[in-house]
Amino acid sequence: MKLDTVFKFLLVVVILFTLQQIWPLRDVRSKLQNGTLVPWVKGALRRVYSHFCFKVIRRDMQIFYREKYIVPRPCYFVFFLVSGCLTLGAKWLMHRVSQPLGERWIPRKKWSERIRKIKVARFNLMFFNLFYFTLISALGLVALSCQTFFPHEMGGQGKLSDYFAGYPNQKTSSLIHLYYFLNGGYLLTSVYSLLMAEKLPDFYENFLQHLCAVILVYFSYGQNFLRVGSIIMLCHDICEVFSSACRVFVDTRHKAVTVSSFCILFSSWGFLRLYIFAKRCILPIHRNLDVFNPLIGYEACVWLTFLLLVILLMNVYWFVLMAKMFIHFVSSGKTEDILTRVAELEEGERADKKTK
């Protein structure tokens, strides 16, 4: 069975499981049978209005700007949209800078016009990501390094019990909220770009990872899991700095930069995305399920754990691919981005030429 089949299967499971959590089918069925669906919908609309009426929004915004430590509120989700719009604008501006560089640095005669166009587009994306994740990782470190729950392996106090101390009414630094907003906005633009771009062989694995990340970010913010969620974000953001640097230069003549970035990426990926993510994030969540199980329900806990394990599985998969990249470099002396699987398109083009 091809890996794409596995990714598609997991994608379907994630979508169905998420829809079930958003709107449980058995509740809809029972309300239809009891004739209470319309009153239930009206009640839901009234609750939405109570959260987003002008007075409530004004009060919550004043709290956000005045207080240093706050709890998530429904109207704060608008900041994710604002962040997404700003990220789109930043991408557009960076594209104007990176496009000429990509055209200059990526060889013209090495690949076909279509493959080269894909590589230039990937260069533009990674060029933006390099700057974005450098800045966002710095913000994350500033916001989290002084927190008591920051893992001791990363230089913090390592009091992981503080992840859920005082839950669900625990207050978190407004800087961590800002970190969340910026990451959430970026993820929205990434999903949009992924859907609008040409569907490459790595589409399903990327979409699966992005979808899980989007769901987890917005679910964790709504349920006030910001502390452990921000650590998970930081582990992934730091790795993206070196991943972006590596993939910016992989198709250029700058092999030294590519190899050095890759070495840092490989070690940081194993440490942050595998060890810290599993031991200092997923495991504490599992051990504290009894804390928030009465509040969000058993099925939501299973759903949350499942999404985290899917992302961990993807991290392991990409770690193995990076190991293959390293072996390929040692044996051939050539740098190649296996993660994007563009080589599959090149093989397809060669096969088409032979048949013609």
From TrEMBL:
<feature type="transmembrane region" description="Helical">
    <location>
        <begin position="296"/>
        <end position="320"/>
    </location>
</feature>
<dbReference type="GO" id="GO:0005783">
    <property type="term" value="C:endoplasmic reticulum"/>
</dbReference>
<dbReference type="GO" id="GO:0046513">
    <property type="term" value="P:ceramide biosynthetic process"/>
</dbReference>
<dbReference type="GO" id="GO:0016020">
    <property type="term" value="C:membrane"/>
</dbReference>
<dbReference type="Pfam" id="PF03798">
    <property type="entry name" value="TRAM_LAG1_CLN8"/>
</dbReference>
<feature type="domain" description="TLC">
    <location>
        <begin position="118"/>
        <end position="331"/>
    </location>
</feature>
<keyword id="KW-0812">Transmembrane</keyword>
<dbReference type="InterPro" id="IPR016439">
    <property type="entry name" value="Lag1/Lac1-like"/>
</dbReference>
<keyword id="KW-1133">Transmembrane helix</keyword>
<feature type="transmembrane region" description="Helical">
    <location>
        <begin position="257"/>
        <end position="276"/>
    </location>
</feature>
<keyword id="KW-0472">Membrane</keyword>
<dbReference type="GO" id="GO:0050291">
    <property type="term" value="F:sphingosine N-acyltransferase activity"/>
</dbReference>
<feature type="transmembrane region" description="Helical">
    <location>
        <begin position="123"/>
        <end position="144"/>
    </location>
</feature>
<dbReference type="InterPro" id="IPR006634">
    <property type="entry name" value="TLC-dom"/>
</dbReference>
<feature type="transmembrane region" description="Helical">
    <location>
        <begin position="76"/>
        <end position="94"/>
    </location>
</feature>
<feature type="transmembrane region" description="Helical">
    <location>
        <begin position="176"/>
        <end position="195"/>
    </location>
</feature>
<protein>
    <recommendedName>
        <fullName>TLC domain-containing protein</fullName>
    </recommendedName>
</protein>
